[in-house]
Amino acid sequence: MRDLRVKWYKPKSKDKSLPDEVRGWYNVIQSSLKVILNASYGVFGTEIFDLYCPPMAESTAAIGRDAILKTIKKSKELGIQVIYGDTDSVFLKNPTEEQVETLIKWSEEELGMDLDVDKVYRYVVFSTRKKNYLGVMEDGSVDIKGLTGKKKHMPLFIKEAFLEVIRELSNVNTPEEFEDAKRKIKAIIRERYLRLKKRDFTVEELAFHVTLGKAVESYTKTTPQHVKAAELLKRMNIEVKAGDLISFVKVVKPPHVKPVQLATKDEVDVDKYVGYLESTFSQILDALGLDFDEILGTTRLELFMQP
Fold first, then answer.
1. pLDDT for residue 24
2. Which candidate, 23, 33, 294, 285, places its Cα nearest to that of 148?
3. 8: how many CB neighbours lie within 10 A of its CB?
4. 121-176: pLDDT as tens digits
């Protein structure tokens, strides 16, 4: 399975001669195989697994750690600056092709492992959080590791700001432009926060859109938020069925959600959306050396000083 992923699906996912959608398909497959491979080792350290064996899990982790440490040491011996090491990768600053080829050959001979160049960043920024960094590729695309705020159902109000931030980062080519981008990103987040506090938005902009997986009556053990919104629609004699897209916003009063069709701006729980704003951007800000609360500190003062 490892060879299938490394020697077929992963190279295909990076083959620029293929259309984007085909490369995307290969990337989904190789990512899925990686999850299965990682889980195959992880279950040995899980008590409920029938073949639970802590030494097996510990040995696997130890071998991986030893390989990474030896790779870092060898990179330094070759005169390469190592700027970061992860579970299964090392980040090297501007290595030559010859240095990379030497490192790959060494790994095959000494470790019995295949190394390859996974990504080439124009620049990369690391945060103080473990496994949290952002890098901008040569084509301007932004790769963000460990981003929990990037959700499929993100409201348009926050998604637009998120895309603005990504656009600013992708345009950076120099340290000076990076500092300018940081100022612009702070301004983007301030603007969204102020609009929330002033209720300068439409209900539709703050809507979450979730598909109803089954009939409302079928949800018996738990009632997800979009189902609560669907129940409110049914009480108003609005037909809802499995497969329908339910659009709802967070409101202050119970059940704390309301369908877009029935909600008004005054009912919106603004503090909830400030929380979503923070969860979306906190890891990006951390990698940029910025703090969400500090950005809002100035903004809150601006609100207080307004007549």
1. 93
2. 285
3. 14
4. 999 888 777 677 888 998 888 888 766 555 567 899 999 999 899 899 999 999 89
Residue 294 CA to residue 269 CA, distance in Å, equals: 22
The tokens 């959600």 sit on which residue?
257
Contact between 147 and 284 under an 8 Å Cβ cutoff? The reply is yes
Asked whether the beta carbons of 137 and 121 are under 8 A apart, the reply is: yes
Rg of the chain on CA atoms, in Å: 24
Backbone torsion region of residue 193, taken as left when φ is above 0, otherwise alpha when ψ lies between -120 and 50, otherwise beta? alpha
178 contacts 172 by C-beta, under 8 angstroms: yes
Running DSSP on this structure, what letter comes out for residue 72?
H
Lowest-confidence region among 82-91, 206-215, 223-232:
82-91
21-45 average pLDDT score? 90
Query: What's the sign of the alpha-carbon dihedral 277, 131, 2, 142?
Result: positive
Neighbours of 203 (CB within 10 A): 20
Q: Which amino acid is at 129?
A: R
Predicted local distance difference test score (pLDDT) of residue 140: 87
Cis-peptide into 19, omega within 30 deg: no
pLDDT at 199: 96
Q: What is the residue whose two structure tokens read 């590729």?
A: 137
Beta bridge partners of 82: 92
Residues 104, 110, 113, 119, CA torsion sign: negative
Angle between helices 175-197 and 270-287 (to 10 degrees): 170
> pTM value?
0.74
Q: How far does Cα 52 stand from its chain's mean position? A: 31
- CA-angle at 42, arms to 38 and 44, nearest 5°: 135
Interatomic CA distance for residues 275 and 192, integer angstroms: 12
């959306």: which residue's tokens?
Answer: 273
Give the distance, in angstroms, between the CA of residue 231 and the centroid of all CA atoms in the same chain.
Answer: 32
